[in-house]
Write a structure and sequence with these properties.
about 575 residues; alpha+beta; eight-stranded antiparallel β-sheet; 13 helices; about 30% helix
């Protein structure tokens, strides 16, 4: 029978995301669900083989097969497919949707396409990142397994033939006759489980909810990818409106480089990017989610506003390291150091988001109060060092000031003449001082007064309205990025040292879309499409994008999927599809 060691981590491009807004799972090419936190995003993993833990849930074809798969359009319903010399089988995988925040429901439907197929199934749910094995597994008279792990209850339907093995897993082989299907339903909850659900009802509800949740995006230049990006963002967004930055923790940006982070929290900046992308044409629900979640945090925390929060609005915990091997080359870090940072640029992004809400008649009194808080914070703190968009040591980061200029100008357009003049005057003050300190000999923006070189993020504020496309600083910065930070059709965020591009870190996929937007802003449509197409093609078969891309090895790096990359893909697809 299959052993858990038969499922070592795969390269990231091969994982598919299953998500329902309240939590997410990664499923590998052999039908192995290698990552799932329960009951919510920031809780401990119950399936953790991705990080070297002992939990996994696999449904695998027996015999020699090759793998493929695809998402059903506009959903996070994944169809894994295995083809052998004389057989083909598909496994339809998803998390039941709409979601219960206290109860995970994993749906797996095995479909024998033509001939009989033999599948090998194992379940090893272990709470505490693999530390707590299943206790007291019991098979009831209706063929359903129940068990406990930690404080969680689980029930497994469709596995009446499973038996415990010496390692504590439930395992069995299953023959599915040709032309038929077999359902497996796994429920995990921190509360008493309700009556067993009917699989057909769960599938119908999930299909219906996804089809209602994800628009067609026919007016974009890449409707399939735009729709998929929105589905990913929808899957990462809770019913309370908070969108986690990624589903995972500890996946390395660079092997053994110490850059391993926990991204299962809501970064306000990332949520703004998603809201802005959802507001380019008609307002989609992700705009309302972004406005609601960020407004609540701004009003609750005021001048103590953090860059990121848990989905329940509380701060993320301090960083600790799990006693696990980790993903190869990485370190399993839980918590995040941003709970001690201030990032000025986030205030500018919030104002841009609220301006977008105003354009779509969503400027409520609470949003108006949040605008005032953000403007007050900018007024008092714009000249102070802070961590910036890349969360580096505190400095007078140029991008942060320009993001605030863009936000102030955007929100000024939504106010009366007197208030607009005040906001524009503050924007002019920031721009003048930033120009005095942060323009290099080429006339381009430099990273900070004391840090030479440019940064691709410096292109975005101009796209957002901080400066015209024809402003000499905008044009010089675009040329500097093209010259200094582009290679092999990919874009890097900045040059951290004297090493060649790619030696210090991978290309930043977010930056590829930013450059596409900057070229579009200048009216360079051919160049914009070139950067857009190159960047969106960095994904694997499931169409997911991480933060970085190792150009030499053609591999994704960092946590998966990275929400702000998918948000920028969605926005770029909209912008490039707009009438000239």
């Amino acid at each position: 029978m299959t052993d858990w060691h038969d499922f070592p981590p795969h390269v990231l491009r091969e994982y598919a995301l299953l998500a329902d807004g309240e939590r997410g799972a990664l499923c590998g090419p052999r039908g192995d669900i290698a990552w799932l936190c329960a009951p919510g995003w920031a809780d401990s993993a119950v399936l953790s083989s991705l990080a070297g833990g002992r939990g996994t849930y696999s449904v695998s074809a027996v015999g020699t097969t090759v793998w493929g798969g695809y998402y059903e359009p506009g959903t996070l319903i994944w169809r894994g497919r295995w083809t052998g010399t004389d057989t083909a089988v598909e496994c339809r995988d998803t998390l039941a949707y709409p979601a219960d925040p206290h109860r995970v429901v994993v749906l797996r439907r095995i479909e024998a396409v033509e001939q009989d197929v033999r599948m090998r199934v194992q379940l090893d749910v272990r709470d505490g990142f693999g530390a707590r094995s299943m206790r007291s597994p019991s098979l009831d008279d209706d063929g359903r397994w129940t068990a406990r792990t930690g404080d969680l209850r689980l029930r497994w339907t469709g596995a009446a033939d499973a038996r415990p093995d010496p390692r504590g897993r439930l395992v069995f082989e299953l023959v599915v006759p040709g032309g038929t299907r077999h359902d497996l339903v796994l429920e995990i909850s921190d509360r008493r489980l309700p009556d067993p659900p009917d699989p057909d009802d769960l599938w119908r509800a999930t299909e219906h909810t996804w089809h209602r949740a994800v628009p067609e995006f026919g007016g974009t230049v890449a409707p399939r990818d735009a729709r998929h990006a929105y589905a990913v963002l929808r899957g990462l967004t809770t019913a309370g409106g908070g969108m986690v930055a990624a589903a995972t923790l500890g996946l390395p940006e660079r092997a053994e480089a110490g850059r391993n982070y926990d991204y299962r929290y809501v970064w306000l900046r990332d949520q703004c990017y998603a809201g802005l992308a959802a507001a380019v044409a008609e307002p989609h629900p992700l705009l309302d989610d972004a406005v609601a979640f960020t407004t609540a945090r701004v009003l609750e925390h005021g001048d103590k506003l953090l860059p990121a929060y848990r989905t329940d609005g509380t701060p993320p915990p301090d960083e600790t390291t799990l006693d696990l091997p980790g993903y190869p080359g990485g370190r399993p870090v839980v918590g995040n150091h941003v709970n001690r940072q201030f990032q000025l640029d986030t205030l500018g992004e919030l104002l841009q988001l609220y301006a977008a809400a105003a354009r779509h008649d969503r400027l409520t009194p609470d949003v108006g109060r949040a605008v005032d808080v953000c403007v007050d914070l900018i007024t008092r703190r714009w000249d102070q060092p802070e961590a910036g968009v890349w969360e580096l040591p505190d400095d007078w980061w140029t991008h942060s000031r320009l993001a605030c200029v863009a936000g102030l100008r955007a929100i000024a357009r939504q106010h009366t003449a007197r208030r607009a003049a005040e906001l524009s005057g503050l924007a002019d003050k920031l721009l003048a001082e930033t120009t005095r300190r942060c323009v290099d000999d080429r006339g381009a923006w430099r990273r900070s007064p004391d840090r030479s070189g440019t940064d691709t993020a410096l292109l975005l504020p101009a796209v957002r309205g901080a400066l015209p496309a024809t402003d000499p600083r905008t044009m010089a910065t675009l040329e500097a990025v093209r010259t200094d930070l582009c290679q092999d059709g990919y874009v890097y965020r900045f040059a951290p040292d004297e090493r060649p591009l790619g030696d210090a870190e991978g290309a930043f996929l977010l930056c590829g879309f930013i450059l596409a937007l900057a070229e579009w802003h200048r009216g360079h449509d051919v160049e914009a499409f070139r950067w857009f197409e190159r960047t969106r093609a960095a994904c694997g078969p499931p169409g997911l994008l991480a933060e970085e891309y190792d150009v030499r090895q053609r591999q994704l790096r960092g946590n998966l999927p990275q929400a702000f990359v998918h948000a920028m893909l969605l926005e770029t697809a909209h912008r490039l599809g707009a009438p000239a």
